[in-house]
């Protein structure tokens, strides 16, 4: 469903699996919903939304959310396996002239296989084409694995902390990446 793949690749460490990176579109709302619910079940503190709240949303809500992901000020890319299943996602949104990275997720069995790197490259290309030379993100203070990934990808901790939306006594670490691919 949706547009043609942006890129395709095969991982040597995963037998017989190929992946495509595709844009998130309104037409892909069912896959978007399925992966979002998986994300929330797997990592309840990572996305600022509860599984219960997301599960109660209507099909129209999911269609709207997917459509909002592909606009002039936002984008999303999904990693899709050779069976058509979404196994990773990364989104970005422009706010106040800054590009924010959002909703980064890779299915647990495929973490460390390069999917997040491929998704980040597409986000960087998208931002670069719009003249944005920095990415900003917020990651839960206890999500050390994600913070380590972002550091490997060139993000730096700004020292700023913001309250975590679902538990304001907890915080999110603000990180930026000073330059992106054009």
TrEMBL record:
Any GO molecular function: acyltransferase activity, transferring groups other than amino-acyl groups
Domain N-acetyltransferase: 19-180
Keywords annotated in UniProt: Acyltransferase, Transferase
Pfam families membership: Acetyltransf_1 (PF00583)
Lineage of origin: unclassified sequences, metagenomes, ecological metagenomes
InterPro entries: Acyl_CoA_acyltransferase, Bact_Acetyltransf, GNAT_dom
Coiled coil ranges: none
Name of the protein: Unannotated protein
């Amino acid at each position: 469903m949706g547009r043609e793949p942006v890129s395709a690749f095969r991982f040597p460490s995963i037998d017989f699996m190929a992946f495509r990176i595709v844009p998130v579109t309104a037409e892909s709302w069912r896959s978007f919903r399925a992966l979002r619910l998986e994300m929330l079940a797997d990592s309840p503190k990572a996305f600022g939304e509860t599984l219960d709240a997301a599960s109660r949303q209507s099909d129209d809500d999911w269609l709207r959310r997917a459509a909002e992901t592909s606009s002039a000020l936002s984008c999303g890319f999904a990693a899709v396996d050779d069976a058509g299943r979404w196994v990773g996602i990364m989104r970005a949104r422009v706010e106040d002239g800054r590009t924010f990275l959002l909703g980064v997720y890779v299915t647990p069995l495929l973490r460390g296989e390069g999917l997040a790197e491929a998704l980040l490259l597409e986000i960087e290309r998208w931002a670069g084409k719009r003249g944005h030379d920095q990415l900003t993100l917020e990651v839960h203070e206890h999500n050390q694995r994600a913070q380590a990934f972002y550091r490997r990808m060139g993000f730096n901790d700004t020292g700023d902390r913001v309250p975590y939306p679902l538990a304001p006594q907890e915080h999110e670490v603000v990180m930026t990446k000073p330059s992106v691919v054009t």
